[in-house]
């Protein structure tokens, strides 16, 4: 019967047992890989949220500019005023009610599947 001698390796000993430092390095590489994947997913979510908020702010700003010009032309005895603003990115519908000194407006902003409401106050 012949005895086989194992080749020398830095990863395991003569009996074939893997050294602990090799396992530690493997676990560290796995931890770094999974942490990087998680950070990438969070970054994609953050970018998507930021883009959506920029689009909502853009729609709100332009609808408020249109609303300001519309409110200047409203007669004094009119109590309610409504307007809508449509873009390829989304839409904004605004309903205003005249108070004693200012207009109270509630805007519904729809971007894709997301809907938000903004309450603003305008002085004539």
Explain the overall architecture.
There is one protein chain. The chain is α+β, with helices and mostly antiparallel strands. The chain contains one helix and four strands, in the order αββββ. The chain has one helix at 20-72, and strands at residues 80-86, 91-98, 103-111, 114-122. Strands 1-2-3-4 form a four-stranded antiparallel beta sheet, with helices on one face. A hairpin with a 4-residue loop joins strand 1 and strand 2. The longest helix is centred in the middle third of the chain and has 53 residues, at 20-72. The chain starts with 19 loop residues before the first helix and ends with a strand. The model has no long low-confidence stretch (mean pLDDT 88).
Output the structural class: alpha+beta
Q: Any idea what the radius of gyration is? A: 32 Å
User: Total strand count, please?
Assistant: 4
Read across the widest sheet, the strand sequence of neighbours is 1-2-3-4
Question: Would you spell out the secondary-structure blueprint of this structure?
Answer:
Layout: H1 20-72, E1 80-86, E2 91-98, E3 103-111, E4 114-122
Antiparallel strand pairs: 1-2, 2-3, 3-4
